[in-house]
Design a protein that fits this description.
The longest helix is centred in the last third of the chain and has 25 residues. About 40% of the residues are buried. The protein has about 210 residues and is α/β, with parallel strands linked by helices. Helix 2 links the parallel strand 2 and strand 3. Helix 1 crosses helix 6 and helix 5 crosses helix 6. The protein has 2 domains: about 100 residues, Formyl transferase, N-terminal domain (Rossmann fold, 3-Layer(aba) Sandwich); about 100 residues, Rossmann fold, CATH 3.40.50.170. A 7-stranded mixed beta sheet has the order 3-2-1-4-5-6-7, with helices on both faces. Strands 8-9 form a two-stranded antiparallel sheet. It is about 35% helix and about 25% strand. The chain binds 5-O-phosphono-beta-D-ribofuranosylamine. The site of 5-O-phosphono-beta-D-ribofuranosylamine has 15 residues, from helix 1, strand 5 and helix 6.
């Protein structure tokens, strides 16, 4: 069993896709051992509760110093002793000590085809606003390993999604989720749990 911690900040539809994937057998040998949110009001916490998954909140707002938050966050992760950490719409900068300790064991889902529309400031609807402003005809989603940069780690899987006439950022966001995010994130988890993913020389490889 691949013991997995899922970190969330908001609605948690990607978390739901993982919960459903496990329940339906599309994701094999994965157990979500804890959900961590930085936001007490995140609906994702509700979803975790409904699925009977241990869920905790650790917010930078509860600490005077960033370093205190970093340590508290690290403790919450380590208590759960995960094999893998999934950032599923997690809007907080991950403590560098966590990235070092879990090298090649943290993945993130980003709602664009990296390296387009990624990096500092590109999160949530802003990504889709930027894609529409640029007039791209194709966008999508990326699952990548997390290193100390922003959206710079090895790319594991991508899926393209067409931009349609009349798209608003909200419509595009929804389509990217439905057609890409909720498919590739569960797939990546299944592959990692099956031992089919290798990272070397800054690149991720899937070995079928
Ligand atoms: C998704 O678009 C994800 O790619 C991005 O944040 C959003 C989270 O949505 N990183 P949800 O909380 O999983 O519904």
């Amino acid at each position: 069993m691949l013991k997995t911690v899922v970190c969330v900040s908001g609605g948690g539809t990607n978390l739901q896709a993982i919960i459903d994937g496990i329940a339906q057998g599309a994701i094999r040998n994965v157990q979500i051992v804890r959900v961590i949110s930085n936001n007490r009001k995140a609906y994702a916490l509700e979803r975790a509760g409904q699925a009977g998954i241990d869920a905790v909140c650790v917010s930078p707002k509860d600490y005077e110093e960033r370093e205190q938050f970093n340590e508290a966050f690290l403790r919450k992760v380590e208590e759960a002793d995960p094999d893998l950490i999934v950032l599923a719409g997690f809007l907080v900068v991950v403590p560098p000590q966590l990235i070092r300790r879990y090298e090649n064991r943290i993945i993130n889902i980003h709602p664009s085809l990296i390296p387009a529309f990624c990096g500092k400031g590109y999160y949530g609807l802003k990504v889709h606003e930027a894609a529409l402003a640029r007039g791209v005809k194709v966008t999508g989603a990326t699952v990548h390993f997390v290193d100390e940069g922003t959206d710079t780690g090895p790319i594991l899987m991508q899926k393209a999604v067409a931009v349609e006439d009349g798209d608003t950022p909200e419509r595009l966001q929804r389509r990217v989720m439905e057609e890409a995010e909720w498919t590739i994130l569960p797939k990546c988890l299944d592959l990692i749990a099956a031992g089919k993913v290798r990272v070397s020389g800054g690149q991720a490889y899937i070995e079928e």
